[in-house]
């Protein structure tokens, strides 16, 4: 989810968000904190906004005005389904957040971010899984335009897990879905810049039911790959690399033990070498990172603590480089995390 995540100029949707327990109490004031990536750790959190994301809001990151800095976006979902953006001003996000769309991604849909037309400005995407439809509104730098532009049908129905990435490396963000059923299929629809092509199967056995799949460029070739976290008491991590021929290669085990239950992992390039790494935050906020080493087909680093007490289970957190040093940071929305998790 939950990448956002920045790869070769494309912002991925960070679809992975921490679940909220019933007793959620603190961290509810809507603040947005940034924990910046340093060399082998995340800095203490700095407040970049004092009231942006609450309750059922769905909050993500992206560069919406094309200035090279990652901004934040809030999908209010519900009946109004307004979309607000707060722009990155260097050490904070612009004060109040500004309405960039009147109706996009109502309740039940899954919003995401990516530059679908390769103009340097991130656009918004929403997956209406009940109907298998995908809608896009593109950024003009000041708002998202195009109301209810349906870019694709017959995609990511039911319990399928959609994601955004540039899987063929042409600079336009594409969409895929993990079937999340007994077939364990992965289907990709490439962006033409104004629509998505019909879904094609890129893998036939990747990410079984109960696993947590995501996307990222783990070998740094500009094409986004897929990863799946087994979680549970197994906690293996498998990667399948995107091939120039237009499919994902063989699934390979890249880590033996990462993000056991109930942790929820995410993806980002934390050391700035152009290859996406993996991160997980424990229920007590201990934050672990393992770094991509594509030469040896592995994420290395077992039990590397990059921060303690970074997040708690009431927060929504996403991964994005908001400080502009090419190292992905943790953006922590103190929302009370009431938004339904897919
Ligand atoms: Ca765009
Ligand atoms: Ca593409
Ligand atoms: Ca790749
Ligand atoms: Ca890296």
Any overview of this molecule?
This protein has no helices and 29 strands. By secondary structure, the chain is an all-beta fold. Strands 23, 24, 25, 26 and 27 form a five-stranded antiparallel β-sheet that branches. A four-stranded antiparallel β-sheet has the order 4-3-29-28, with no helix packed on it. A hairpin with a 7-residue loop joins strand 14 and strand 15. The termini are close together. The N terminus is likely disordered. Bound molecules: calcium ion (4 copies). One calcium ion binds next to loops.
Rg calc: 18 Å
Number of strands: 29
The percent range for helix content is under 10%
- Flag low-confidence runs: 1-25
The rough form would be described as globular
How far is the first residue's CA from the last residue's CA? 10 Å
Which structural class do you get from the secondary structure elements? mainly beta
Number of helices: 0
What compounds sit in this structure?
calcium ion
The percent range for strand residues is: 35-45%
Main sheet record: 5 strands, antiparallel
């Amino acid at each position: 989810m939950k990448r956002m995540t920045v790869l070769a100029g494309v912002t991925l949707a960070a679809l992975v968000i921490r679940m909220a327990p019933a007793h959620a109490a603190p961290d509810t004031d809507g603040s947005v904190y940034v924990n910046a990536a340093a060399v082998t750790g995340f800095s203490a959190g700095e407040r970049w906004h004092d009231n942006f994301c609450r309750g059922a809001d769905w909050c993500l990151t992206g560069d919406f005005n094309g200035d090279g800095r990652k901004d934040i976006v809030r999908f209010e979902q519900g009946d109004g389904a307004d979309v607000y953006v707060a722009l990155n001003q260097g050490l904070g996000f612009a004060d109040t957040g500004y309405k960039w769309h009147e109706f996009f991604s109502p309740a039940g849909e899954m919003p995401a971010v990516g530059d679908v037309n390769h103009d340097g400005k991130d656009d918004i995407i929403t997956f209406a899984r009940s109907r298998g439809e995908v809608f896009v509104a593109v950024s003009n730098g000041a708002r998202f335009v195009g109301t209810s532009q349906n870019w694709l049908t017959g995609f990511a129905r039911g319990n399928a897990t959609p994601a955004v990435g540039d899987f063929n490396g042409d600079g336009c963000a594409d969409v895929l879905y993990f079937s999340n059923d007994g077939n364990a299929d992965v289907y990709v629809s490439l962006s033409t810049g104004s629509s998505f092509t019909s879904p094609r199967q890129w893998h036939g056995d990747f990410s079984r039911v109960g696993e947590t799949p995501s996307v990222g460029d783990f070998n740094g070739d500009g094409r986004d790959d897929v990863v799946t976290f087994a979680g549970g008491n197994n906690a293996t991590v498998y990667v399948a690399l995107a091939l120039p021929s237009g499919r994902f290669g063989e699934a390979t085990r890249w880590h033996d033990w990462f993000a056991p239950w109930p942790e929820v992992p995410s993806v980002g390039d934390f050391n700035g070498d152009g290859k996406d790494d993996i991160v997980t935050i424990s229920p007590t906020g201990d934050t672990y990172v393992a770094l991509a080493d594509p030469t040896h087909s592995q994420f290395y680093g077992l039990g590397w603590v990059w921060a303690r007490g970074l997040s708690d289970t009431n927060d929504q957190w996403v991964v994005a480089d908001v400080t502009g040093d090419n190292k992905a940071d943790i953006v922590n929305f103190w929302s009370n995390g009431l938004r339904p998790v897919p």
